Amino acid sequence: MLKQIDCLNKIFGLLKCRNDILEFLVSEKLITSDKMHHILHSTPTTHATTIAFLLKELQHEEKVQLVSYEWTVLPKEYINLTIVTNSSKKEWTYGI
After folding, report:
1. What's the confidence (pLDDT) of residue 64?
2. Which end of the chain is more exposed for a tag (fewer CB within 10 A), N or C?
């Protein structure tokens, strides 16, 4: 789980996508907007951990079909987070 948290921290720093990820989960009706606001108003250093555990929980409950973390440093840094739900797929990518 530590690698997923590190990957989320890195992608949050590069793409500023934590709101987008949570908005996607709200739009898919996987979390409430209250839960999203609760996460966003918590300490920023805990966002990656909270979201990683949330995604793991959603996957365990089979509300999310796939959560894929890719992080390659060499030869060029590449980070990709993919979330697949029953009705859609969303990717956040840095460094193509």
Report:
1. 97
2. C
